[in-house]
Amino acid sequence: MASETMSYREALRAGLEEALNQDPRVFLMGEDVGRYGGCYAVSKGLLAQFGAERIIDTPLCESGFVGVGIGAALGGMRPIVEVMTVNFSLLAMDQIVNTAATLRHMSGGQFHVPLVIRMACGAGRQLAAQHSHSWENFYAHIPGLKVLSPATHSDARYMLGQALADPNPVLIFEHVMLLNEPGTVPDKPDAPMETALIRRPGTDISLITYGGNLPKALTAAEQLQQDGISAEVVDLRCLRPLDKPTLLNSVRKTHRAVLIDEGWQTGSLAGEISAIIMEDGFWSLDAPVRRVCSAEVPIPYPRHLEQAALPQVEQIVTTAKAVMEGR
Amino acid sequence: MARQSFDIVMPSLGADMRDGTLTEWLVAEGDHVSKGDSIAVIETNKGAIEMESYYSGTINRLLVQPMLTLPVGAILGTIDADSNTETDAEENADADIVTDNEQPVSQSISPPIHNEPPIVPVVSTAPATETSVRALTSQRLASPIVRALAQQQQLDLRGISGSGPQGAILLKDIQTLLQAQSAASSPSEAATAAPSSKAVTPKTATSSRDSNAMREAIAAAMEKSKREIPHYYLSHEIDLSVAKQWLSQENAGRDPDDRLLLTALLIKAVAILLPRFPALNGHYLDGRFEPAPAIHIGTVISLREGGLMVPAIHHADQLSLNDTMLALRDISQRSRTGRLRSSELTDATITLTHIGDRGSDSVFGVIYPPQVAILGFGRLRQSPLVKQGQINICDTMTVTLSADHRVSDGIQGAKFLHALSQQLQQPELL
Questions:
Q1: CA-CA distance, B25 to A325, in Å (whole number)?
Q2: Residues from chain A contacting residue B147 (CB–CB below 8 Å)
Q3: What residues contact residue B75 under an 8 Å CB cut-off, 6+ apart?
Q4: What distance separates the 2 farthest-apart alpha carbons in chain B?
């Protein structure tokens, strides 16, 4: 089967469709996923195709319907719960963190929670602070959860299937700026979902990122190439567990690293990765690790301020150049 | 007054020099040297240069083995200066502070060296213990990868100047060291030879000089010159009939080896005139002109394998014509075989270029920064000159002056060329 060109949104929908077709235990649940077709139109058409028993519109009560999802998973179903944006998932945080993440451990392995929670994340569409934050680091902090960040069309298409096959609760973060982008979907997944991938090989510096910032890092790498700097772009793909060998091997090769993370720098995932490099890759470094993160403000509504608050290509390039000089 | 210890560092023999190869020590530990004595031979992209001591004193330690390429500023050894050494106060401002403490500490930030044997930054036959290497590497800021490599490969980081923040040594700073190491074909012999041993034959200038490197060096200097110096150009046709005739007579009675060349005459004439034209003799540094107190005439020597050297004839104004000729012969020879002294390459106050008898009628030189003038001597040729309404066939030469407009104006330059013409009409006075 040849590869296909489609939007990131279409790739997500193709993944959902396949999951619903392959396994009768799979159902989709969330605010507006049915009649409205999903807040970002990902599940548009699925209600007509699969019926109201498998495409379920829920009331505005994140804690409630995520809890239902956990119960259904415990009861043998394979629920896919859509939380409109990561910002709203904080209302369900108790269910996710205190219940879904802990039950396998607390039951001594007797109960699994094969739940998948999908949510939109990130900024750039002028949705103001309460719809634009990057909380994925909160979930990446929690043992018992798996956290995925599909940055490519291939991952948008295939990570859902891989997540459903996992006995643990898996959270999938879909960056809102990727939805409309067209791209290529091959006929099979790039790699197991927990493996980080080198999206562009290089020898001088590692740009380590995930999700919505992958395209920015790739553009920055192109620009750096014009200045004779060979940047390697590492796509983490899975934020928990982190694929340490892949990212450390990259740093051992290039001796330098810039981490790009849309979260705020303080307490960020970038901070965690930096610490991993310090602990296990320190002796291969030729310069301090640097981070390009969002400005430490609630993401602003006005377009120019929103763009100013987010990591941008120019910042990545400037930071990478500084690191090349040992600064 | 306490004796001061100074580092002997890889000298910078021009703005374009990044590194040099220590090919030979000319002194041993414990030797006493006077300021200006040659202490080592350094191979650069300009050829082999004899490095002179900046101090009178006793060679304390020789830290680096010959045949190692190191960046400018790398510490090669230390010297205990005599207490009465006359040192340039400005140059040694730091040393004064050291003196106030009355401690014979080394001037650089490298650790004081006691009795450990010289550390040889090439693969050693016996691996050093981990602690000793840590002692070596922990004294300098260095990136983790540099430290790890230093430990693995027994590199001594003390002599390396780092390009990172606060002088931290980065990977690129030790690239030459690592290359030297991997390229060392007989590392164990080099490692075990005593530093003062002359067993290692220095590469001769001609065999090792990289013509590309020399081209790069010339390019760097000339680019800087054309970018920074606003040149003005003058040319003047000088009648050398009298001078040539006088020279023929003078040489008739001499053995071929002692004969004078016209170039010596020209150098001498320029040298004795320059005190009257201080704006052409000196250096433009840090935004201002410093007239030079002495006259050191740099002479462009073309090398047979291509490229140029510009060694200086020191105090040319105080040399007799015969001595000028001797000096010219000496620097020409040494330029071609290597072994110029570092001061000869760095302290010229004006440059003189000669296109030669098979060259062009005139040559307009590019000023060698930070100097402010260059004289160009064209081909000696026969041409018609009109004198008192008569056409005469004369031996003439077009002499040009390229000078720095920030320092002098055309009228001063023209006066100089005119005076030079007058001077050369009385060769017997030279």
A1: 35
A2: 283
A3: B7, B8, B9, B63, B64, B108, B110, B158, B159
A4: 89
pLDDT of residue A31: 96
Strands (E), B296-387: 297-299, 301-302, 308-309, 312-313, 340-341, 350-354, 373-377, 381-387
Q: What is the DSSP letter of B372?
A: -
Among partner residues B145, B163, B164, which is closest to A255 by beta-carbon distance?
B145
pLDDT of residue B166: 81
Q: Is A105 a catalytic site residue?
A: no
CA–CA separation, A189 and A153 (whole Å)? 10
B168 touches chain A (CB under 8 A): yes
Residue B77 has pLDDT above 50, yes or no: yes
Q: Residue B181 has what pLDDT?
A: 63
Given A10, A62, A232, A262, the catalytic residue:
A62
Residue contact B145–A325, C-beta within 8 A: no
B318 touches chain A (CB under 8 A): no
B363–A contact, CB cutoff 8 A:
no
Per-residue pLDDT band at B217 (split at 50, 70, 90): confident
d(CA A98, CA B414): 93
* C-beta atoms of B168 and A326 within 8 A: yes
Q: Do B171 and A255 touch (CB under 8 A)?
A: yes
Identify the contact set of chain A against chain B, taking CB-CB distances under 8 A.
Answer: 255, 282-287, 325-327
What mean pLDDT is predicted for residues B172-196?
54
Say whether B145 and A283 touch across the interface (CB within 8 A).
Answer: yes
* A283, A286, A327 member nearest B171 (Cβ): A286
Does the interface ipTM go beyond 0.90?
A: no
Question: Helix, strand, or coil here: B167?
Answer: helix
What does the pLDDT average to over A128-135? 92
Query: What is the pLDDT confidence band of residue B84, given thresholds at 50, 70 and 90?
Result: low
Write down the H helix ranges in A92-231.
93, 103-106, 136-140, 153-164, 214-226
State the CB neighbour count (10 A cutoff) for residue A267. Answer: 12
Nearest CA among A300, A316, A5, A38 for reference residue A174: A38
Query: Region B88-99: what's the mean pLDDT?
Result: 39
Contact A268, A137 (CB under 8 A): yes
Which pLDDT score, from 0 to 100, does residue A287 have? 94
Q: Cα separation of B148 and B129, whole Å? A: 14
State the Cα torsion B205-B160-B146-B210 to the nearest 10°.
-20
Give me the residue label for tokens 């240069």.
B49
**Nearest CA-CA distance, residue A113 and chain B, Å:** 44
DSSP state of B115: S
Query: Per mean pLDDT, which range of A60-74, A146-160, A192-206, B62-76 is the poorest?
Result: B62-76
Spatial contact of B243 and B424, defined as CB atoms under 8 Å apart: yes
* pLDDT score of B240: 93
Q: How far apart are the C-alpha atoms of A22 and A31, rounded to whole Å? A: 24
Q: Which of A82, A131, A153, A306 is catalytic?
A: A131
